[in-house]
Amino acid sequence: MKNSKFKLDKSNWASVEGWLSIIGNILLFGLKYWAGLATGSIAIIADAWHTLSDSLSSVIVIVGAKISKKPADEDHPFGHGRADLISAFIIGILLLLVAFDFIIESYHTLQSRESSEFGSIAVVVMIVSVVTKELLAQFAYFGAKKTNSKVLKADAWHHRSDAISSLVILVGIFLGPYFWWIDGALGMIVAILIGHAAYEIISDSIHSLLGESPSDTIIQELKMTIEEVSPGNLEPHHFHLHVYGDHTELTFHILLPQDMPIKQAHDIATVLEESILEKYGYVSTIHIEPHTQIN
Fold it and tell me: CA-CA distance, 182 to 169, in Å (whole number)?
């Protein structure tokens, strides 16, 4: 009998994290919404809808991870890995819309001078929310580190922003009896926190989608590897990394003597490509330029 061991890859992590999030968020939404109606708190009701929006983002996580796992085909020769980035971008947009809605609701609350009466119900519900959402955030962050998934990192941000907003409301509950405007002000603070998380997610996703320059550390490591594999004055330069999820394409230039036979130049490039693939997992394309000798 074969001893099969289930391994959590990027898609599996996303699926497990996504379903845990959906179940937890729906339960928390019902709890928070009930507490918001019971206390008349716009901040708690807004926080409840924020929690429910997490369920939608978790669906995006599951679908995005499934698409990104699809192999390369004729229309997508480098695979579907960037579906992970697109999913993260969508989650960021959803967060931005939630933040905008909270600002409008909070403004109306402050304008009408509405106050809320918080009680033990609100305290218990907010404590449960902070603990639950932080646990979900930690699980998503752990999965993001294990798989280098931007969409899991984005969902972790979503959970974390919800935990922070619940914590802010919890603090405000104890200040409610002294300041009538605390509920509307807290709604504004929650909106700013969510908006900041949205900005981080959107910015990170766009940066990766548009193409990232390899860091100086990566370039130096590549140059050292090239020198070890093929000592000589190759002068590797013009490095470009193209990341497609788990698939990474690397292009760069090297200099070879202008009178070197084509086959010899090809063999040098092939050895370099194989070494880089083995060490870094990058699929390389090397452009050869003639090395002009100065007499």
Answer: 9
Tokens found for residue 118: 């918080």
- Say which residue the tokens 């002068």 belong to: 235
- Residues contacting residue 124 through CB under 8 Å, at least 6 positions apart: none
Are the C-beta atoms of residues 116 and 37 closer than 8 Å to each other?
A: no
Whole-model pTM?
Answer: 0.59
d(CA 8, CA 143) in angstroms, rounded, equals 9
Q: In what order do the strands lie in the sheet with 282-291?
A: 237-244, 247-257, 282-291
Collapse the DSSP code of 214 into the 3-class scheme (helix H, G, I; strand E, B; otherwise coil) and give the result: coil
Residue 84 near residue 245 (C-beta atoms within 8 A): yes
- Convert 47-63 to b/e letters by CB count within 10 Å (16 or more is b): bbbbbbbbbebbebbbb
Q: DSSP states of 189-210 as a string?
A: HHHHHHHHHHHHHHHHHHHHHH
pLDDT, tens only, 228-264: 887 777 888 888 877 766 667 788 899 888 888 888 8
Tell me the per-residue pLDDT of 69-100, one tens digit each, with 9 for 90 and over: 666 556 655 555 566 677 778 878 877 887 88
